[in-house]
Write a structure and sequence with these properties.
Blueprint (H helix, E strand, L loop, with lengths): L3 E4 L2 E4 L4 E7 L8 E7 L6 E6 L5 E3 L7 E6 L4 E6 L8 E8 L16 E2 L3 E6 L1
Parallel strand pairs: 2-11
Antiparallel strand pairs: 1-3, 3-8, 4-5, 4-9, 5-6, 7-8, 9-10, 9-11
Length: 126
């Protein structure tokens, strides 16, 4: 069982940047498969960024180059940096993980993940 706790969200004005964090439990974090997803009211969950067991990052087209996923294995923490926040970025952001090793060349579907955090809210005003 992997526990995931997101943090770093908040209410910000457009143009600001945020770094979201996802603290994970476990002693094999370095090879976890990780992902960030978001869901806005009335919309389906969409992928944002992912990182496979080999540290390879993938992004969806909708990120438009403003999202950066990274991690600190020593801290068992995954990060998502969002630059130049826009109102359309307003959503609940979720961290997801799976323990088994993976290798991703394209952004993975939600079915690839076994564990999910509670989410952290990002609200962007004009």
């Amino acid at each position: 069982q992997v526990q995931l706790v997101e943090s770093g969200g908040g209410s910000v004005q457009a143009g600001r940047s945020l770094r979201l964090s996802c603290a994970a439990s476990g002693d094999t974090f370095s090879t976890y498969c990780m992902g960030w997803f978001r869901q806005a009211p009335g919309k389906e969950r969409e992928g944002v960024a992912s990182m496979d067991s080999y540290g390879r990052a993938t992004y969806t087209d909708s990120t438009k180059g403003r999202f950066t996923i990274s991690k600190d294995n020593a801290k068992n923490t995954l990060y998502l940096r969002i630059n130049n926040l826009q109102p359309e970025d307003t959503a609940m952001y979720y961290c997801a993980a799976r323990e088994s090793r993976c290798s991703w060349l394209v952004f993975p579907p939600t079915t690839q993940f076994d564990y999910w955090g509670q989410g952290t809210q990002v609200t962007v005003s004009s």
